[in-house]
């Protein structure tokens, strides 16, 4: 079994997304300390036979020594990925990692509103176009909420035009941090709409893509275990 671990390098972020449950934002941190702790953690993961590591944040591409950490993890024969909001185009990082995870919240108008940045979606497309050109294994993650739960169909065209996108993760918004402050939520009725849409999404894209979701566990627990 390939053990996996996520390393949060920073809580610093270049966006202030409405649904961010950890309230990631521009902030001051002890970057050298974070870097040294990450090196120590990679050594520990290697000792514990972890085979995959993902660097995340905040926004990991802001972290000044990200490339050094990627190279260090790869020197341990680990599969390395990053999780990014797609605002930063860094060819060196994209070429170096094995996989890339990008969060996207819907079509451009919805995505940009949630991300509070009018250029966010266009930046993601620029990144996805490059990743397509190098056939980099890419995963999208969409956090469904009251602003986008009925906009899942846009994923069909996006994934079919970028066949390097091989997995789509659909997650529920977490009622904490800025999501709670901004009244971003997902009730059971919305959850059922998303749940019902999954088969349609699979039917349209099944020849190359997986849809991975945490919705089943939450849906089944709330509707069968609790009731």
Describe the model.
This protein is an alpha/beta fold and 227 residues long. The chain is 42% helix and 19% strand. It is built from nine helices and seven strands; from the N terminus they run βαβαβαβααβαβααβα. It has helices spanning 31-47, 66-75, 91-96, 108-115, 120-133, 154-160, 177-181, 188-205, 215-225; strands at residues 3-8, 50-56, 79-84, 99-103, 137-144, 165-172, 210-213. It has a seven-stranded parallel sheet, covered by helices on one side. Helix 2 links the parallel strand 2 (50-56) and strand 3 (79-84). The longest helix is centred in the C-terminal third of the chain and has 18 residues, at 188-205. The chain is globular, with a radius of gyration of 18 Å. The two termini are 35 Å apart.
The overall pLDDT average reads 89
Shape descriptor reads globular
Please estimate the helix content: 40-55%
Instruction: Report the total helices.
Output: 9
Low-confidence stretches: 215-227
Secondary-structure-based class equals alpha/beta
Quantity of strands, as a count: 7
Q: Quote the distance from N terminus to C terminus.
A: 35 Å
Helix-strand sequence:
EHEHEHEHHEHEHHEH
Radius of gyration: 18 Å
Strand order of the largest sheet: 1-2-3-4-5-6-7
Give the oligomer, counting copies of the same chain as homo and different chains as hetero: single chain
Relative strand content: 15-25%
């Amino acid at each position: 079994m390939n053990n996996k671990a996520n390393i949060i390098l920073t809580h610093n972020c270049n966006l202030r997304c409405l649904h961010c449950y950890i309230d990631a934002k521009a902030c001051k941190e002890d970057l050298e300390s974070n870097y040294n702790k990450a090196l120590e953690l990679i050594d520990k993961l290697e000792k514990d036979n972890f085979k995959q590591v993902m660097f995340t944040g905040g926004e990991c591409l802001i972290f000044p020594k990200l490339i050094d950490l990627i190279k260090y993890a790869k020197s341990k024969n680990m599969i390395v990925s990053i999780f990014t909001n797609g605002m930063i185009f860094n060819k060196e990082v994209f070429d170096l990692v094995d996989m890339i995870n990008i969060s996207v919240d819907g079509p451009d108008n919805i995505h940009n509103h949630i991300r509070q940045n009018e250029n966010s979606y266009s930046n993601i497309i620029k990144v996805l176009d490059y990743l397509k050109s190098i056939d980099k294994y890419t995963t999208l993650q969409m956090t469904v909420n009251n602003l986008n739960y009925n906009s899942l169909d846009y994923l069909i065209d996006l994934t079919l035009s970028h066949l390097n996108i091989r997995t789509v993760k659909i997650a529920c918004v977490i009622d904490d941090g800025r999501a709670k402050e901004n009244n971003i939520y997902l009730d059971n009725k919305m959850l059922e709409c998303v749940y019902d849409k999954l088969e349609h999404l699979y039917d349209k894209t099944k020849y190359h893509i997986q849809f991975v979701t945490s919705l089943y566990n939450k849906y089944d627990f709330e509707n069968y275990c609790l009731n």
